[in-house]
Amino acid sequence: MAEKNEEERELTGLYAAVHSAIWLIGLAVLFYTSNWFPGILILVAISGVAQALLQMLAKQEEAKAQAAQQARQAALAVPATCPTCGAAINASTVVWSGVATAHCPYCKAAIALKTNA
Ligand SMILES: [Zn+2]
C-alpha cells in the first residue's frame, strides 16, 4: 500500500510539472505573438487534453504496477518443488487454476501455496 501511494505522488508531481511547462510556454508564445484571443482558449484546451492524457497514463502505470506486484507475490508463494512428485516448479511452470490455487504441471496435484509474509 505504501508503494502504491508513493507512485501516485510521483505521477501527481509529473502532472504538475507538465502542467506548469504547458502554461509557461503557452503564455510566452501568447506574449510574443500578442495573440491573447483566441490564443488563451487554445492554451486552456491544450492544458485540458494534457491532463486527460496524463490521467490515462497514470491509470496504465497503476495497472502495470499492480500486475508486477501480483506476479512477485505469486513467485514467492510457489514452493521450489512439487510436494507430491518432487519436480522442480515455479510460478511460470505451474498451472494456475485461480488467483490462489495452482496445480503441478507434471502430476496435476494441487500445490499448497506458501502464505505471503
Ligand atoms: Zn507434481
Bound molecules: zinc ion
The largest sheet has its strands arranged as 1-2-3
How many domains, as an integer? 2
Largest sheet data? 3 strands, antiparallel
Shape: rod-shaped
How many E-type strands?
A: 3
Q: Low-confidence spans: pLDDT under 50, at least 5 residues?
A: none
Radius of gyration: 25 Å
Helix content: 55-70%
End-to-end CA span: 14 Å
- Subunit arrangement of the protein: single chain
- Structural class call reads mainly alpha
The helix/strand series, from N terminus to C terminus, equals HHEEE
What proportion strand?
A: 5-15%
Task: Output the number of helix runs.
Answer: 2
Mean pLDDT: 83
Describe the structure.
Helix content is 63%, strand content 5%. A 3-stranded antiparallel sheet has the order 1-2-3, with no helix packed on it. The mean pLDDT is 83. α1 packs antiparallel against α2. It folds into 2 domains: 75 residues; 40 residues, no CATH class. By secondary structure, it is mostly helical. It contains 2 helices and 3 strands; from the N terminus they run ααβββ. It is rod-shaped and about 80 Å long. Bound molecules: zinc ion. The site of zinc ion has 8 residues, from loops.
SSE map:
Blueprint: H1 2-33, H2 36-77, E1 95-96, E2 102-103, E3 110-111
Antiparallel strand pairs: 1-2, 2-3
The structure holds zinc ion (ZN).
